Each structure stands twice: as structure tokens, then as C-alpha cells.
Amino acid sequence: MALALRASSARLRRSWRALVLALAAFGAPALAQAPPALAPLRFLLGTWESVPAGDPAAGTGRATFAAAAQGRVIVRTSYAEYPAAAGRPASRHDDVMTIYVERETVRAHYVDSEDHVIRYVVTTPASDRAVFLSEAVAGEPRYRLTYTAVASGAVDGRFEIAPPGAPEAFRTYLSWTTRRVN
User: Fold this and answer.
1) Residues 6 or more apart from 5 whose CB is under 8 A from it?
2) Could you tell me if 88 and 94 are in contact, meaning their C-beta atoms sit under 8 angstroms apart?
3) Domain boundaries along the sequence of the chain
């Protein structure tokens, strides 16, 4: 009986080893390879904090762009804190954005603590620039978020809104500069 158990145990170990080797040889490289369409966004990876603007009412914040799902997704988590000013109470804004590839198009899904949900198509018109543009929907505002790497190693950000009925009439709502923390 003990001899039969040892033989069965040895076969089981060999089977597991074969399975692990097969997964390593065939499954892992395919899963670990990030979609090429996300490569131009690598300049955003890392943790970034806002550079003080000199305006005491301006907020401070931090954003982290991290690869997830074995490089197939980039997840941005972000917050901004605003001090009390001009009769307005102090506040905090938190958001999460998932950037992914769907049918060879880079897309992003944004959700924040103010119940906003924005779906973007992402383009990279230059190696140091990423533009997130929401679709034009009748009766709704349109959004554009742009990140641009600058010579100092910082990244400038700009969030623009176009009013309903004028999907190309973007006006800057927020702009900021961030520096890499890590």
C-alpha cells in the first residue's frame, strides 16, 4: 500500500511540474506582454504630486499611474484637496480612471467622488502627450483631459469642458503641473 502511494505521489508531482512548465512556456509570456497601444502612455507611470501654484486657494493633490492586470491596463488613482476659501468649505476630490485597449483603440473609464462618470478615447499625438477625449453626446457637455511631459521632467495637465451643443468649444476648467515623486 505504501509503495503504491509513493508511486502515485511521484506521478502527481511529475504531472504538476509538467503543467507548471507548460504554463510558463506558453501562457505566461502571452499574458505578461502589454498591448503595444499602451506603450506611448509609459511617460505617465509613477506617482505625481502637484506643484504649488502660488495661489492659496489652489488645491494640492497626488496621482498614481500604475500598470495592472499584467500590463494590460493602467490604473490612475488621484485626489485633490482644496482649502477653505472665499466662504467655501475645505473639500477633497477623489477619482479612479482605468485605461485599457478595446479593439485596438485605447479607452479610459473615469469615476469620481462627485458621481461623475466619463468615458474617453485616448490618443497620443506626440511621444510626450496624451489626449483623453469624451464622445460628443447631444445635450451633454464634452470633456478633454490632456497630459504633456515638459522639459523639466514634470507633467502639465489640463482639463477642459465644452458646453452642450458646442462639442468643440472647449474652455479650460483646471490646469496644473505635477512632478514625479518616485
Assistant:
1) none
2) no
3) 1-32, 36-180
DSSP string over the chain: -HHHHHHHHHHHHHHHHHHHHHIIIIIHHHHHSPPGGGGGGGGG-EEEEEPP-S-TTS-EEEEEEEEETTTTEEEEEEEEEE--BTTBPPEEEEEEEEEEEETTEEEEEEEETTS-EEEEEEEEEETTEEEEEEPP-TTS-EEEEEEEE-TTS-EEEEEEEE-TT-TT--EEEEEEEEEE--
pLDDT at residue 158 greater than cutoff 80? yes
> Cell 479610459 belongs to which residue?
108
Q: Are strands 73-82 and 91-102 parallel, antiparallel or unpaired?
A: antiparallel
Reply yes or no on domain 36-180 having CATH 3.20.20.450. no
Query: What is the per-residue pLDDT across 37-52, written as a single tens digit (0 to 9) for each?
Result: 999 999 999 999 998 7
pLDDT digits (tens, 9 = 90+) for 46-105: 999 998 777 767 788 999 999 999 999 999 999 999 899 888 899 999 999 999 999 999
